[in-house]
Design goal:
With 189 residues, this protein is an alpha+beta fold. It has three helices and eight strands. Strands 1, 2, 3, 4, 5, 6, 7 and 8 form an eight-stranded antiparallel sheet that branches. It binds a DNA duplex (13 and 13 nucleotides) through residues 26, 28, 35-37, 40, 43-45, 59-65, 67, 69, 82, 84, 110-113, 154-158, 178.
DNA sequence: CGGCTGATTGCCT
DNA sequence: GGCAATCAGCCGA
């Protein structure tokens, strides 16, 4: 699961004429992970997570935002990787119309911004991202070298803050700025 | 520039 | 009924 997350850095998400190269993702480990939507078992909302890998899990949150996950791991295991941020590499004109006033660096800088930029909503829940014929699919991109991959705690979760299951590309300006639980400096205790 | 908060729907207990 | 894998805008410094 963590290896899949790491491999997704640099991959390119394609939806219609817009494409985004991923710079930040976050792993969720299915039923035994208290921060996972699958923790309390299968429900109508999260049922895609319990299906085969390679499919998209789109959910609605905070009354106004969509976020997208890639289902990974074994069928039924319900592991998933939250796609958090990336750089727009195609369709900049389309995105500029969708996000008037935003600067390119911020187009997909955060999970909800990423879905807005790509035009993703619940209609894409469950699509097979491994097929180039799907409305949304994922292509391999230029590999990110190991020395540029950084790991840290997940964002916005109230439980299991200790597991470093978020990974991102070091020094990439499109990585999301929201890191509420990451102390910038470690004071000696 | 960094920190805080209101917005607003749907899901789960 | 409570709260969420967030974001934009506003505040003060």
């Amino acid at each position: 699961m963590l290896d899949v997350a790491r491999e997704l850095l640099g991959a390119v998400v394609v939806c219609a004429d817009v494409a985004v190269r991923l710079s930040e993702v976050e792993a969720y480990a299915g039923g035994r992970d208290p921060a996972s939507h699958a923790f309390r078992g299968k429900t109508p909302r999260n049922e895609v997570m319990f299906g085969p890998p390679g499919h998209l899990y789109v959910y609605f949150t905070y009354g106004m935002h969509f976020c997208m996950n890639l289902v990974v791991g074994r069928d039924g295991h319900a592991s998933a990787v939250l796609l958090r941020a990336g750089a727009v590499v195609a369709g900049v004109e389309t995105v500029a119309q969708r996000r008037p006033g935003a600067v390119p660096r911020d187009f997909a800088r955060g999970p909800a911004r990423l879905t807005t930029t790509l035009g993703v909503d619940r209609r894409l829940n469950g699509v097979d991202v491994t097929s180039a014929r799907s409305a949304l699919h994922v292509r391999r991109g230029a590999a990110v070298p190991d020395e540029l991959v950084r790991w840290g705690p997940r964002v916005g979760v109230s439980t299991a803050q200790e597991v470093p299951w978020r990974c991102w590309v070091d020094a990439d300006p499109t990585v999301s700025p929201y890191r509420p639980h990451v102390p910038k400096k470690r004071r000696h205790v």
